[in-house]
Design goal:
Elements (H helix, E strand, L loop, with lengths): L1 E3 L31 E7 L5 E8 L11 E4 L3 E2 L10 E2 L6 E3 L9 E8 L6 E7 L25
Length: 151
């Protein structure tokens, strides 16, 4: 299983770097990750194969950027089925967004008088995405409580 945050790197599985997880029935991990479960089955020849893998990628920090995943399957020589050793074509690319736990930061950078005495210009920055995402549309609301006093 491969993972990457760079959109252009997901086009080819070879540009995604080394796999983040390897599930190998012939050489099982002596310290398996408890967040992943491998479901196996056996064919009519009694050869065990991976039927399904379920798990949670716990190594990620929250971010507003997409996380892309792709998988490949490797096989060794199997003369009973006529399989040659090698790697399968990569799966379709799938992305998720794992937002930070506290939402986007809003940092006020300056405040200056407006054109009218009661106006104020406020400039700010945020780490929220500035382009549209498939998650939702973002709006920024400024709430101002204006009090008038009689003199």
């Amino acid at each position: 299983m491969h993972r990457v945050r760079v959109d252009s790197a997901v086009n080819y599985v070879d540009s995604m770097g080394p796999p983040i997880k390897v599930f190998d029935l012939d050489n099982p991990d002596p310290n398996p990750d408890p967040n992943w479960t491998i479901y196996t089955s056996a064919d009519s020849n009694g050869i065990t194969y991976i039927k399904c893998i379920q798990g949670v990628d716990t190594e990620l920090q929250g971010s507003w950027r997409k996380v892309w995943y792709r998988t490949t399957a490797w096989t060794s020589l199997d003369v009973t089925r006529g399989q040659l050793p090698g790697r399968s074509p990569a799966s379709n690319a799938v992305w998720v967004i794992l937002p930070p736990p506290n939402g986007p930061d809003v940092i006020f950078t300056s405040q200056s008088p407006g054109t009218n005495p009661e106006d104020v210009i406020i400039e700010w920055n945020s780490d929220a995405p500035t382009k549209d995402t498939n998650m939702t549309t973002y709006f920024v609301y400024m709430v101002h409580n204006k009090r008038r006093y009689k003199q």
